């Protein structure tokens, strides 16, 4: 089976239902498995449970699942460093951090440090949340601002950044 070269760190951005997760999965599986799937989502209701099941059902065998709503830096550095890895997604991670009242700047620095220590490539998925209107409430604005700052920091250290819209990838960097 021919293998594809993948940069050490790829950030895949896009809106909801843009096809970014599927695109990211295909990037990771272009390398020989097994692959690590670092999932940040938590199922607090039936609709989210179904979303998670949908993501899981389309993945082939060979994925090693890590449910990691908060400590993705530790998972990336200490449990999956030698496996091609996919983090899906940073925006849910930001939401989880805010809910847990954790410092997002500190968690971001830990994540960047963990990414720099990895052996195998990593693909990170995140929503681009800054393309719409300014949210009407302070919590939503804080979330948008934190997600935007995080995306900028990860994009700065990423080797490649891709924006996905309607299932079509547009390379922004690399």
Give your account of this protein's structure.
The protein has 174 residues and is an alpha/beta fold. It is built from six helices and seven strands; from the N terminus they run βαβαβαβααβαββ. It has a seven-stranded mixed sheet with strand order 3-2-4-5-1-6-7, sandwiched between helices. β6 (160-165) and β7 form a beta hairpin.
Keywords:
globular; 6 helices; 174 residues; alpha/beta; 7 strands; seven-stranded mixed sheet
Structure, briefly:
By secondary structure, the chain is α/β, with parallel strands linked by helices.
The main sheet comes to:
7 strands, mixed
Sketch the topology as an H/E string, one letter per element: EHEHEHEHHEHEE
Q: Identify low-pLDDT runs.
A: none
Q: Averaging pLDDT over every residue, what do you get?
A: 92
Summarize the amount of helix as a percent range: 40-55%
The total of helices stands at 6
Instruction: Indicate the proportion of strand residues.
Output: 15-25%
Question: Whole-number radius of gyration?
Answer: 15 Å
Distance between the termini: 25 Å
Overall shape: it is globular
Give the tally of β-strands.
Answer: 7
In order across it, which strands form the biggest sheet?
3-2-4-5-1-6-7
Structural class based on helices, strands and sheet pairing: alpha/beta
């Amino acid at each position: 089976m021919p293998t594809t070269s993948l940069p050490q760190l790829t950030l895949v951005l896009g809106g909801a239902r843009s096809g970014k997760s599927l695109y990211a999965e295909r990037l990771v599986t272009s390398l020989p498995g097994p692959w690590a799937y670092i999932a940040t989502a938590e199922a607090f209701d039936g609709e989210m449970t179904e979303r998670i099941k949908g993501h899981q059902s389309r993945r082939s065998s060979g994925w090693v699942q890590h449910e990691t709503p908060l400590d993705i830096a530790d998972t990336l550095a200490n449990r999956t460093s030698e496996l091609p890895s996919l983090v899906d997604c940073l925006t849910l991670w930001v939401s989880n951090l805010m809910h847990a009242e954790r410092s997002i700047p500190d968690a971001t620095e830990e994540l960047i440090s963990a990414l720099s220590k990895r052996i195998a490539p990593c693909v990170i998925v995140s929503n681009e949340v800054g393309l719409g209107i300014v949210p009407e409430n302070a919590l939503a604005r804080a979330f948008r601002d934190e997600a935007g700052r995080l995306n900028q920091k990860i994009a700065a250290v990423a080797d490649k950044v891709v924006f996905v819209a309607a299932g079509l990838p547009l390379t922004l960097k690399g």
